[in-house]
Specification:
single chain, alpha/beta
Length: about 210
């Protein structure tokens, strides 16, 4: 089975290639199928809900590709910020540019807003919602994953991407910025959501 994962994030692509390795499910991405990046894609994440944003992306790329398609929307929700950055996690700083520069700016903005916040107000969780479409006109199926932790007052480690150097995982008792790829995959919000999807798809594959 070939599955289009509707993301252009190289960090997410690496995670998903690891997760689906040896599963009988071949993951592919928009660039692999020659789907050109369009300004229209930037308008797909306009909702205040992770699930709605994921559904918009899944519907768009399923129509473009005619492949079974899954899209995710995920983000970091921080207690002291009333759940922000949430669905705006990718655009928290307002910077538009190369992914590494955007990640740096987003982390700087998070540290700025949490300056002086006590430890009990720095609790946070990552949330991921997937929407899967077996075909463009199929009813959507949703899968979710969450992981809990807290936001550090400085970066710790250089692994991962996004807010990983600032997110201290309750499960791992270390930052995602220090975790190995396997350690992070085992407990991350995206790992949990995609494992649920993977189990669902494997049950439908021919034996």
């Amino acid at each position: 089975m070939k599955l289009l994962v509707a993301t252009r994030s190289t960090g997410k692509q690496r995670e998903l290639q690891r997760l689906f390795a040896g599963s009988g499910i071949e993951v592919t991405f928009p660039d692999d199928l020659g789907i050109p990046q369009s300004p229209e894609e930037d308008l797909l994440e306009w909702s205040d809900s992770f699930e709605a944003n994921a559904r918009h992306k899944a519907e768009y790329f399923a129509r473009k590709s005619q492949y079974p398609t899954v899209a995710d929307d995920s983000g970091l929700e921080v207690l002291a910020l009333g759940g922000a950055p949430g669905v705006r996690s990718k655009r928290f700083s307002g910077l538009d540019g190369p992914p590494d520069e955007v990640d740096e700016a987003n982390n700087d903005e998070l540290l700025r807003r949490l300056a002086g916040a006590p430890p009990e107000r720095r609790s946070a969780h990552y949330q991921c919602v997937l929407v899967y479409l077996a075909r463009p006109d199929a009813p959507p199926r949703s899968f979710e994953g969450t992981c809990t932790g807290r936001i550090l007052d400085r970066r710790d480690g250089g692994k991962g991407f996004g807010y990983d150097p600032l997110f201290y995982s309750d499960d791992l008792q270390q930052s995602f910025g220090r975790a190995s790829a396997g350690e992070k995959d085992a407990v991350s919000h995206r790992g949990r959501a995609f494992r649920a999807l993977k189990e669902y798809l494997e049950q439908s594959l021919p034996s």
